[in-house]
Amino acid sequence: MNILIILVPCSLLLGLGALAGFIWTLRNNQYEDPDGDAARVLLEDD
Amino acid sequence: MTATVNRAPLTDAPTHHLVLPGIRCAGCIRTVENTLQARADVIAARVNLSRKRASITAQPGSDPGPWIADLRRAGIEAHETREPGATGGADYVMHLGVAGFAMMNVMLLSVAIWSGAADTTRDFMHWVSAAIALPATVFSARPFFSHAWSALRAGRLNMDVPISLAILLACGMSLYEVIQGGEHAWFDAALALTFFLLIGRVLDQRLRRRARSAADDLAALEPSRVLRIEGREPVRRPIADIRVGDSLWLTAGARVPVDARLESGRGMVDRSFITGESGPVARVVGDVLLAGEIMLTGPATVRVTAVGEDTTLRRVAQLVAMSEGARGRFRSLADRAAEIYTPAVHILAIAAFAGWFLATGELRTAINVAIATLVITCPCALGLAVPAVAVAATSRLYMSGLLLTSDTVLERLAQVDTVVFDKTGTLTKRVPGVPEGLSPDERSVLKALADASGHPICQELSGTLADINPADLADVRELAGDQVTGAWRGIPVRIGRRTATDPTTMFSIGDTVYSLNAKETPLPSAGSAVQRLKALGLATIMMTGDTDQHADAVAAELGIDTVWSGIDAQGKVARVQTLRTAGRCVLMVGDGLNDTAALATADVSIAPGTALDATRNAADVIILSGDLSQIAPALKISRAACRRMKQNFGIAAGYNAIAVPVALLGFATPLAAAVAMSGSSITVVANALRAFRA
Predict the structure, then answer these.
(1) Complex ipTM, two decimals?
(2) More confident residue, B530 or B428
(3) Neighbours of B626 (CB within 10 A)
(4) Contact (CB, 8 A) for B471 and B463
(5) Are residue B159 and residue B208 in the same domain, yes or no?
(6) Could you tell me how far CA A35 lies from the centroid of its own chain?
(7) A36/B5 Cβ within 8 A
């Protein structure tokens, strides 16, 4: 069961990474305009 | 013009905000941003499609009037607003994210324990769970703690008190058990409780924010700038800058923004929003114009006599706001459920503790059973029962053009048994009549003339004649607010007043003259609206200040049961009050300032989106589309929604009927709690998200 000492922190780190990503998207205002972001994909870059 | 699409968020704080009610697609985004950025005074512009707004950073002191004109030319409707739109409020989502992360990880560790991990492995898992759960709970459950604390300080109990107690006790007892090397820890239950309840809160918050932002959009439709005469020239200024004594320039069709006295020009004024009277009223120099009236003729100059909160409109609205009563007394389904639930759960937990302590004499067992009872009674399902249904039903209603402005509207709508309509402006509209006996040629001339003018009468006319091809006219000229003239095959044609003193609107071709007197006609959707309401078994009543025969004719045409005519604003309030005292649940539909007090008195009220803001603020539901036939489907949906809320409470109670005896007998494990909590929450949400059929 010693493998748990490595695996549990590993899974926690992965989870924390995902949480940090979520918080980053929140701080970065990525949920401000979901419809607009979906539409802007269709616009060409000039 | 360089076609650049601004991708980066605005770096400088936006200085102006526009509401863009019509934008739908990527093309609109590009048109708006390119049009705005083509202007020299605009530094940056960014469209938010979800909120249908644009934020603009511009040179200081810029006037958005020309931008709006540019956008209109590009086919985009735009209005200036002072509000930046609902922003922020992401904090509950952050709490939800942290709770969700912690719950998933603790649940994973718990699965190992439930599968039979023992001794040091179990203790290790428990300690890791504690290390995740304690800080996560402290952060995520803070909204519940602070609400519970403020309720307790005020000497009240609310839903947050048992929730906070369950979370705190579950964490505290689990920590004690872990230190003692015990078998059961409830960390996952505490986190699941927090997570599911936060979902309810986030849904609630989203609902309110959307209502507020849509109400802001409506407010933006009101003029935000007026022409003030400075020196000799009219200059566009924000209404907030207008002071008593200023001179304003009003064009034909403009809504009077403040109380003022007519200084030059004479005019016809539409007072229907204030008095509910349908006909236009003549005003001469020295007469008073009230905020909310519409200048039918123009231009005119006026001297401001009252602004802002001092205008008659605002003072009436304030009186109404102070007398609002029906709403405050309403007890929502969620409140009533909380009133039963909160004491019941506390009594059960205390009884469990006392029973087990007396029976076994073991403090630790007794506390464990009491906590299991607190946790397993799952307020999650109760907390989700109402908001999940409310979000689903409100979104459904919003799609059909109805905006709900308060959180208990659905429940009040469901109880309605009597619908009271105001007549003028609500059921009927004054439409300039196209004269009988016009030849096809004459109709197309009329259409061409009407198209050439921005005057409200002409715009109505061209709407009525929408399917007619306009004739070719030469030399079309509009004398703003007075007449529009032209030549058709060499014959002079004209729409305008008969003479300087006779306000009747005439249409003339050469020497032939037709009267364009406005007729009061029911709105296209009024008839079907009344029929559908009657099909639902509701009583329909029409109240009006107008005379008997006219009102009777309209009512007969629409199929309304009862007509009360010759009733003023106080009379309307009194009649609604009488109906309520007689035990009726009254829905009032009205649009005028004279209906505002009656709207506030009724159990529920509906106003069209075109009503004055003072009237809209008194209404619970706003019909954005102006389509009255949506009222009956809305009542059906709200009834279905209430049935579903009750079903949800039933589901929650059903789970508890099984879970509580199990917990009281001491058989509850963290696994059982997790199953009961998730199971009931998911069932409740799934039930709420079933489609609503109107």
Answers:
(1) 0.87
(2) B530
(3) 15
(4) no
(5) yes
(6) 19
(7) no
